[in-house]
Amino acid sequence: MDTKKILAITAAFLWTVCSAQADTFKHRSTGETFHGFPTHKKSAGKTMIFNADLNKFTPIDLAEYQIAYNQEGRRDSVMVLKLDQPEILISETVAAAVAEAILKATDQGPKAIVIQIDLPGGQGPSMRMVTDAIAKAVDSAGCRVAAYLTGGRFGGAFSAAAVVALACQRIYIAPSASMGAIGPMAGGTLSNEEYGKFVETYSPSTLSTFSIYAATLAQQRERPELLAKALVDKQLTVAEVRGTDGKPSLTELSQRQETQSVVRVLAEGLPASSDAASSASPQNYGKLLSLTSVEAVRWKMADKQAAALSEVMDDLGAAGSPTVNVASFASTIPRYLNAKKTLDQLITKIQWEEDQVATLEEHLSEMEKIALTSTTTREVSRAGQYESFRRGTIRLRTQDLPPTRYYNERDYSDEQIPLTDRYGRDLRSRDRQTTSREKVIAQEPSGNIQQVRMQIMNLLTEMVSDYQRAINLAKRWPGALPTDITVDTLQKNMNSAQALYNGIQTRAMQGGY
Q: How many CB atoms lie within 10 A of CB 14?
């Protein structure tokens, strides 16, 4: 046996011992002994424990006690949490409520906690919240925690949900259940877009960043690390190979040795260059890791098959113990769904507002362009006005012109036309009234510019308010936004809408176009 394997087994043994049920406490100096159980809570640096002899909680320094691992100080009950609603690992708020429920169940000192899982997957941060709570229950409070993959409407535990199961000390699986990277999606024939949305919701590409974390959980429970990684890394190809000694093992196909022959490929990863749009089909994703209950037990991804909860309790040594259903997080899910519905409505409304603003802004731009660049054509004549005429009979310097001439002010520059007649009278004193009229031809903007500006500003005001509501709601309920929208996106769009409002308001205040 090589050194690496010895260290792994030693670490697993130490982890198992340290996480066993600590129910009898004996003080190293005084010899004082009592029965009870630890909790995950701390007080002034000490661990809160329940002293069953005194029937109360008290803080102690665990290092001062010798601890016997037995069931004598624990209560005769099994706490059962059902994780079978898809929102559990999508919303961080719901996941936080589930994590809190696990720790509260731990502090009740049951013989065991059984987490029944039937989920299509979820997001990494939500998964981590639940697995961290399980780790605290096991490591800090010494409570046994088992997973039971029931195989209900979602068919078992997939992607993030399967990693939650890996955090438990024991995994039981129903004969009809499965474990894998992508869960089955009901609903008949689906487009690639619909299937891609399902995959990105419950088995997102971001989960691959948790592959090392999943492998660490698997190592702690002596489960195959490669299969644990394949639950969240869709680009990993895992093969069953057989060496020269004839023994089967698992390896990443790209690292297969020449002496190893491939028996079969358990997980065929997607190409690294593939994108969500081109890969989003059941045919492509069907090649990813998917283990039946028999295969899960064979590869030690699960410990035993169990057709019912009673079989799980028998194996845990809790046969006949009463079960307590933990549902303290159930009320959080309807509130999350309401928040998600409201967010969907807000996003739809914002998209309509954006379309309206874009249309009005284009219209306003055209109106302003016309107002700034259009010209006016005039047929000049001045109805109701007068033009001064001079009339006189004069003897001109040349005899070629007639002796009598009507002339007006335009003729002043003519040197042949005098300003006075031969008697010295002013020839500009007589006027004639015109009868012509003015006709104006101009291209005018259609509509009122100020009115259109006001419509846009009102829409933008409402849009900014809707953006702020959506941002606040999304922050309170992480995971409620559509997968292609983030809080940062909403914030940037809101800032752009506010900047547009400020720009239009400035132009309006300046009084120009």
A: 10
Q: What share of residues in the chain are helix, strand, coil (percent, to 5)? A: 40, 20, 35
Map tokens 């307590």 to a residue. 324
Structure token pair of residue 391: 């009339």
Candidates 28, 86, 106; CA nearest to 61 is 28
Give 74-235+270-330's CATH code, choosing from 3.40.50.300, 3.90.226.10, 3.30.70.20, 1.10.357.10. Answer: 3.90.226.10
Strand partners, 387: 432
Place of tokens 């390896």: 251
Q: What residues contact residue 141 under an 8 Å CB cut-off, 6+ apart? A: 37, 38, 39, 40, 103, 106, 107
Residues forming a β-bridge with 393: 404
Residue with structure tokens 């010895």? 6
Tokens of 184: 């089955």
Residue type, 43: S
Residue with token string 């997968």: 483
Distances (CA, A) of 218 to 114, 163, 211, 229, 374: 19, 9, 11, 9, 75
Q: What is the secondary structure of 83-106 as a DSSP string?
A: E--GGGGT-HHHHHHHHHHHHHHH
**435 Cβ neighbours under 8 A, 6+ residues apart:** 383
Domain residue spans of the chain? 22-67, 74-235+270-330, 340-374+448-510, 380-442
Q: Which amino acid is at 359?
A: T
Whole-number Å distance between alpha carbons of 252 and 230: 10
Which residues are paired to 386 by β-bridges? 433
Best CA proximity match to 40, nearest among 30, 50, 28: 50
pLDDT digit string (tens) for the chain, length 513 residues: 444 444 343 333 333 333 344 578 999 999 999 999 988 888 898 999 999 888 999 999 989 998 886 777 788 999 999 999 999 999 999 999 999 999 999 999 999 999 999 999 999 999 999 999 999 999 888 899 999 999 899 999 999 999 999 999 999 999 999 999 998 876 556 677 888 888 889 999 999 999 999 999 999 999 999 999 999 999 999 999 998 888 899 999 888 988 899 999 999 988 876 544 445 666 777 789 999 999 999 999 999 999 999 999 999 999 989 999 998 888 999 999 999 999 999 999 999 999 999 999 888 888 777 766 655 454 544 444 444 444 444 444 445 555 444 444 444 445 555 555 555 665 554 444 444 455 554 444 445 788 888 899 999 999 999 999 999 999 999 889 988 899 999 999 999 999 999 988 887 777 555
SS3 120: coil
